[in-house]
Amino acid sequence: MDRVRESAPQLASITPYDPKYIPADAFMSANENPHDVSEDIRHEIERAVRKVDLNRYPDPLANELRDMIAEANGLERDWVLVGNGGDELLFDTALAWGGPGRTFLNLPPTFSVYAANARLTNTAMVDVPRKGAPDFAIDEDAVLAAVSDPCNPVDFTIIASPNNPTGLRAPHDFMERLLAATDALVVADEAYFEFSRMTSRPLLEANRNLVLLRTFSKAFSLAGVRLGYIMAHPDVIKEYLKVRQPYSVDAVSQAIGCVVFENRAKFEPGIRAIIDERDRVMEGLKVIPGVRPFPSDSNWVLFQVEDAAHAWEYLYGKGILVRDFSDAPLLEGTLRVTIGTSEQNDAFLANLRDFCMRKRD
Known about the structure:
- By secondary structure, the chain is an alpha/beta fold.
- The chain is 38% helix and 15% strand.
- The chain contains twelve helices and 13 strands.
- The protein has helices at 39-50, 63-72, 85-97, 112-120, 140-147, 172-181, 193-196, 234-243, 251-262, 268-286, 308-317, 342-360; strands at 26-27, 80-83, 103-106, 124-127, 156-160, 185-189, 210-215, 228-232, 291-293, 300-305, 320-321, 323-324, 334-338.
- Helix 4 links the parallel strand 3 and strand 4 (124-127).
- The protein starts with 25 loop residues before the first strand and ends with a helix.
């Protein structure tokens, strides 16, 4: 038959997530670690992968990796769940705590996948916008009022800390007050916490409604492998188990994850170097005419620039790919640059300065 039934109605308003990942000499758009895993760790990975029985299904729950993460955090296995990247676990959150008749509290501007998952699961959404410039701080009073509204109860919220794409972490005292104010599920998306040096981990045992979400993609240079995990009370983990896909984390990824997590201390110098470079890039942006960088606790810097869309084109013409948010609601006129190698950062700053000076001539 030369026709097909229409897809689910909620898809009509969905635009597929597009990271705008296109060829470039310097990839500075996707918040990846600019350095691959070291050769010694790669050799360990190769040995571990050779031991994987490719004809057998993987451990459904990645229990070896689960145990390693739990032990490192002073927890038991049933407090941890591993997923196919943080993205799978974010979608599982919407499946388990969202749906028709349920409400998600969103804090835009933030990671667009949160809102997309709410729409895909027919979850109602309440927006509490951030305060905007100079730092896109959370409107704490408005968030606390929203989760306390008896007329429109909130079922879950996601607080990115640091927040992507604006940069700042959520204040610890705000997270304490939020958790105390509601029984809604509060997911602290800590995908970039290694660069902020701050975590809500101390609040975990005392707050059954807290979920910590983390990833191997950023600090541990495994964006190409797809591994993430959550830590939460075992009762919460059980609900995630009801909606997750079976065998979602393949055996090869599990083997790689175990090697990398066992060697995680070896990534610390690289993390410190990215933090140092972030501060250097921030200072470099401050002295370019027409550029306004926003404070960041992560491995990127969001900045406003005159004629941002053309600035993006100019940089890309020089082989430098940054992320264009110039038309995004609440982020108009902004670009986001991921911290790269020192050479990439130098090239980015020099070319952006050249663009801005040409605009002024």
